[in-house]
């Protein structure tokens, strides 16, 4: 009887075949095994080929013969590991592998299971299928365990409670996200209007965080403590609330924790409860060691120091993020092929992502086209002349506004306002707000004559001009408050007046921003569309950003005289977010010339740090160290300067005993001595400089790596061309050989 033929796949084994098999859920091992299998098979097919050896009965060979032992018909089949891998990849074995994969996933914790599924090189539908199957097996196992142990109803009740708690947690988390005004709106703004307009709202979000950080210590250690232990009532009658205080900040608000004059200059004590036998309070019972003057000075100083550290860190981080990548070369292909997030399934989210990618491509192409357009020498000279003329007109406008503010402030000093005429207190803030609103419109008209090629340069120039105007006006106001008003209001609380002036400036600035939004954007949009038949106006990035910096500077200037100004600034910023977002969607269009705002956040934070925060810090330091406080109000009424509160406290500690002698030493050598201040400033500047150098080094390394990648690509093209030429020569040689053989055959035939 004929023996059945047996075939074996002769595949040489490798040393790796004797190692452990890779786990089905280990992504890297699966990738490596598949890659090695494909590479080995390709090499064997190309060089040696796969030989099918027929097995015939015969005597077994010796181990040293060098040939593989042939098996008889009754012997079991023995395959190498490589053969087993090839057989395992057959369709009939796929179901078994899938079952094993699901079984191993089912044995993992939920978090690790999701992590493993997320990293597998599979489609989203396949990952969902595997997750559902693993969950189904887990539920079945829990159900069998519950039937063996607990009652089925108890198991279902437990699962229902767990799911309810999980759903409640997700609902609370989504509710917290919904409370953030920038959760979805920022994505929509970036998709429709680009990164340039988005930078304004991101900067507004940053200011909200700064003000919240500034307000927390003031509420905890200053406002809350004074509200819990109010000072004795003033001898005069407290005025009733009339509603005008919301604009002027005077009247009823003067007798609240809103202003500096309300805070006491004593150590706050717990109310004394006399004992039942009629004795007096003991010394330990009535003491609450909380020195209000020291707490006032220390809290404001610590709040400013925290803000300074946060600003420097934010500026450094923003600088590193925006300047880390040196150029946008090669980013077009990455944006086209790698920007889409395939996990997005909702229609609304996919539309927003589509708009973001489209707008980003427009900005990249506009930046690339801008580099390709050179300008002639005559055009450059003409532009320089126009720029010089426009700058002279802008500086003249800023000088005229400064003179107007100074003259009006002197007029207000010569004709003081009585307490019955609270409305007249709004005169100077109104003049300042009108100038701050009107001058930027004049700057925009003059900027139309310049015709900058780059929209980024146009925005930077507008920011510089508006910044000069606002900083000069604020400088005149600071001189008016600390140089003129202090001498005029000798017998009054000049700190309250300065706090009220800053409050009025903030409130009127918000009102004028609303008027500008209504008439400057809504009415102009209606006129442009109905009468002029034009498109909607663009969003003024420079003017709106400078309004934010101006309002934040007012907050920092007034925090010493009105500790609740950061809270008012937070409310103002929240209102501005919704108002500007609504006006942007309804009244504005995307920039006609899209541009990539890669460094705008860094520029905004830098302007907020150096001209704004630094100027406010100098103003407050001068008020603390040089200006004499009022003798009728506030926590420093009996001192020559506010800084003396620290000296008085140190002298008391020196008299207390040797246990706290280290505190006067710290004050003498670290606070009064100027060397530590200079040392800390030098270290801070050194850290900033080193960070800049590190970022520059990273940019240089990235540039070299990009060049290396480009060179490697050229090397690959060169090798491919060489291989192609070798292949063509081989083909031509084979063609000539075939023609020679054919010719020889023809000759033999003849």
UniProtKB/TrEMBL annotation:
<feature type="transmembrane region" description="Helical">
    <location>
        <begin position="423"/>
        <end position="443"/>
    </location>
</feature>
<feature type="domain" description="TMC">
    <location>
        <begin position="493"/>
        <end position="598"/>
    </location>
</feature>
<feature type="transmembrane region" description="Helical">
    <location>
        <begin position="675"/>
        <end position="692"/>
    </location>
</feature>
<comment type="similarity">
    <text>Belongs to the TMC family.</text>
</comment>
<feature type="transmembrane region" description="Helical">
    <location>
        <begin position="294"/>
        <end position="314"/>
    </location>
</feature>
<feature type="transmembrane region" description="Helical">
    <location>
        <begin position="384"/>
        <end position="408"/>
    </location>
</feature>
<feature type="region of interest" description="Disordered">
    <location>
        <begin position="50"/>
        <end position="72"/>
    </location>
</feature>
<feature type="transmembrane region" description="Helical">
    <location>
        <begin position="207"/>
        <end position="229"/>
    </location>
</feature>
<feature type="region of interest" description="Disordered">
    <location>
        <begin position="1"/>
        <end position="28"/>
    </location>
</feature>
<feature type="transmembrane region" description="Helical">
    <location>
        <begin position="502"/>
        <end position="527"/>
    </location>
</feature>
<feature type="transmembrane region" description="Helical">
    <location>
        <begin position="163"/>
        <end position="186"/>
    </location>
</feature>
<dbReference type="GO" id="GO:0005886">
    <property type="term" value="C:plasma membrane"/>
</dbReference>
<dbReference type="InterPro" id="IPR012496">
    <property type="entry name" value="TMC_dom"/>
</dbReference>
<feature type="transmembrane region" description="Helical">
    <location>
        <begin position="600"/>
        <end position="625"/>
    </location>
</feature>
<dbReference type="Pfam" id="PF07810">
    <property type="entry name" value="TMC"/>
</dbReference>
<dbReference type="InterPro" id="IPR038900">
    <property type="entry name" value="TMC"/>
</dbReference>
<keyword id="KW-0472">Membrane</keyword>
<protein>
    <recommendedName>
        <fullName>Transmembrane channel-like protein</fullName>
    </recommendedName>
</protein>
<keyword id="KW-0812">Transmembrane</keyword>
<keyword id="KW-1133">Transmembrane helix</keyword>
<feature type="transmembrane region" description="Helical">
    <location>
        <begin position="455"/>
        <end position="482"/>
    </location>
</feature>
